[in-house]
Amino acid sequence: MSNLLNGELSVSELTSLIKRTLEEGFYGLQVTGEISNFRPSSTGHWFFTLKDSNASIGAVMFKGSAWRVDFTPKEGDRVVVSGSLDVYAARGTYQLKCDSMRLAGFGEILAELERRKRLFAERGYFSADRKRPLPPYPGRVGVVTSPSGAALQDILNVLERRAPSLDVLVLPAVVQGDQAAQTIAMRIEQANALMLCDVLIVGRGGGSVEDLLPFSEEVVVKAIAESTIPVVTGIGHEVDFALADFAADLRAPTPSAAAELVSTAFVQLSESVRSLSATLSAQMLGRLTLAQAQLQRTDQMMLARHLTSLIDSKEFQLANASASLTNAQRELMSQTEGRLALLKGQLQALSPVAILSRGYAVVQSIDGKIIATKEDAKPDQVVDLRFADGKRRARIEE
Predict the structure, then answer these.
(1) Is residue 6 very low, low, confident or very high in pLDDT (cuts 50, 70, 90)?
(2) Beta-strand (E) ranges in 62-192?
(3) I want to staple 234 with a disulfide (CB 3.0 to 4.6 A). Which of 178, 252, 315, 346 is the partner?
(4) Does the residue 280 lie in any domain?
(5) HSE (CB half, 13 Å, CA atoms) of 356?
(6) How far apart are CA 249 and CA 232, in angstroms?
(7) Are 191 and 132 in contact (CB under 8 A)?
(8) Of the candidates 86, 104, 122, which is a domain's last residue?
């Protein structure tokens, strides 16, 4: 190299020297940065810029390496790439040639999930003693998910096809972002407090590990573990997992599979009815054929006496069955009325008006905000005092 530097060099010789030096000296690199100007080509190659707060470098990932990446990069993604420097001699530029790519922080997320898993297991959230069997024929299914997500439509389509008579209650929740875990837990607790359904499906469609993190927060895992209503989780795709799956009474690989689990007994019942119907039709046909043969050999008077006796016997059985059906209907109505009265009492106990009627009052600012502490009540501030039968306006003196 020293001999080359001491003499005159052509541009090609200099570029060749730089190319050889960079490509041979910089390989096996691990570089962390933010993706910018991402430009996938029609041939399957990815061209983009990798940058941080102080510098940027052009990068390329050819099709032969890009297909192994398990996510689609987008603007602003922070990634870790491995590769080497590549010099384009015709322009005298260099770029980073990437052989692999992963999201930065992925390993830290998995480590944190493993730590939480051990902690929640110690607290008993995953205990087998908490697991409850699903009701075979639920009257109502509650679905905690995003009202605008594809997961909800998948669940509704499956239940409509397999159990069209099943009542479905959608409990809308945010399933991604900072507020997601709180809203998911709140919906689960609300369903239990008001006994809104017989079984709960909690889930969302697929996403990255970061997207599914709300379902691994303690508030959600604890709400599922303490739910008196059986819970089925259907979070992401089959390969995805969340800590909520370990606390649930049953885990399904997808939201659609969760709907199938809830409606299994209905499908089995429908198949049994179809099988019994086919068997009954075959038996009736056989009996009719036999009866036709016997009819040809039977005296008309004997046939009349036999039919009269048979009709009398069936009328007696019909009368007994009618009486039993009436008694059963009355008992069912009585049970339903008792349950309705219990639910009415629970609703009245939870009503804010019922609390106010016992002598309590709610203090609000003029614009309607609740004043919960004495520090929030400022001297000379005008407030509204809301009672069970109305409100009065007052001023804070001290």
Answers:
(1) low
(2) 78-88, 93-103, 140-145, 167-172
(3) 252
(4) no
(5) 13
(6) 6
(7) no
(8) 104
Token digits for 219? 């508030």
Residues 6+ apart with CB under 8 A from 212: 204, 235, 236, 240, 242
Residues 280, 284: Cα–Cα separation, whole Å: 6
Which pLDDT tens digit goes with each residue over 380-395?
888 888 887 888 888 9
Task: Quote the CA–CA distance of 58 and 47 in Å, as a whole number.
Answer: 8
The tokens describing 71, both together, are: 């996510």
Residues making up the chain, counted from first to last:
398
**Same structural domain, 178 and 249:** yes
The DSSP code sequence of 157-189 is HHHHHH-TT-EEEEEE---SSTTHHHHHHHHHH
- Alpha carbons 65 and 63: distance in angstroms, whole number: 5
Domain count, the chain: 3
Same-domain check for residues 169 and 124:
yes
Together in a domain, 36 and 168: no
Query: What does the pLDDT look like over 355-382, one tens digit per residue?
Result: 777 778 888 888 888 888 888 888 888 8
- Kindly state the average pLDDT of the residues 277-287: 83
Task: Report residue 20: phi and psi, to 5°.
Answer: -65, -40
Alpha-carbon gap, residue 39 to 22, rounded angstroms: 25
Minimal CA–CA distance to 142: which of 85, 199, 91?
199
Residue 252: CB atoms within 10 Å? 21
Report how far apart the first and last C-alpha atoms of the chain are (Å, whole number): 87
Task: Give the pair of three-digit tokens for residue 272.
Answer: 């049994």
List, for residues 82-93, the tens digit of each pLDDT value. Answer: 988 888 777 778
Return the closest-CA partner of residue 193 out of 171, 162, 217: 171
Crossing angle between the packed helical segments 218-225 and 106-122, to the nearest 10 degrees: 30
Q: Which of 189, 143, 195 is nearest to 166 (CA)?
A: 143
Query: 126-155 b/e with 16+ CB inside 10 Å = b?
Result: beeeeeeebeeebeebbbbbbeebebbebb
- All residues at 6 or more sequence positions from 101 whose CB lies less than 8 Å from its CB, including other chains: 61, 69, 73, 79, 80, 81, 82
- Within 10 angstroms of residue 6's Cβ, the number of other Cβ atoms is 8
- Domain range for 88: 2-104
